[in-house]
Amino acid sequence: MVAMKAMKAAKAADDAAPMKAMKAMKAKAAPAKPMKAMKAMKAKAAPAKPAKAMKAMKAKAAAMKAMKAMKAKAAAMKAMKAMKAKAAKAADDAPAMKAMKAMKAKAAAMKAMKAMKAMKAMKKAMKARKAAAAPAPAMKAMKAMKARKKAMKARKAAAAAPAPKAMKAMKAMKKAMKARKAAAAVAPVMKAMKAMKKAMKAMKAMKAMKAGGAMTQTAVFQSVAETTGLKTKDAKGVVEALMAVAVSQVAKSGSFKLAGMLNMKLKNKPATKARKGVNPFTKEPCVFKAKPASKTVRVLPMKKLKEML
Question: Where exactly are the structural domains of the chain?
Fold first, then answer.
């Protein structure tokens, strides 16, 4: 299109030059001097050919520029198409890339989970080792007891058996002696463990007493045991036996005096029917539910307890 416009412009320029020259000749030439007018026409017409060549050159250059512009535009269009194709390909590959990233993240998470499970298993194994190490003395003591029993049986067998059996009995006795030595070595450890447990319980009871709080049942039994010189287990048995007698007597006769300090009386509450009444808090009418018959024990302090307080 640009080349066609340039060609039309060049043709129009070629046609316009003689017309301009004729108009100038008519305007300037006088009717008495036709020769001068002819010379002027020739003089003006002579330089018209180089001017046409220049215009043609310019038109040709413009056409060349237009051709280059067209080629550049075509190249740009190709580049745009290539860019669009590349973008479409990238869009198609995007889900696959996301899936790959998700797979990698999942694999990393699985590794982390395995590491966490391994850590937990190691902790459990450590606890199991500690637990297995703790009852070791007790297991040794049990083995020593079994060995003693075997030794006793071997002695009895040796007393009534002939020579071959006596040899076996001697071997069993040797094993029993070794077991005794092992038990003798373990016995102090067991005693120390029991003493530590008792000391810990006593310390807890002392702390509770110092803190001003109520004594626990264990602390009460330990205090009774220390006062009476009995074992804690025996003191607990005595207290439980006494309370059993108190319960039986209250159920049988309706009353029982505990150590001359507390008077325990049984009170029978009869059953009540459902009735209408007024709620003492909201002052609104309500229905009180029926209650079955029940038994309660009322404990009253006696003179001896009041004097001791």
Answer: 172-230
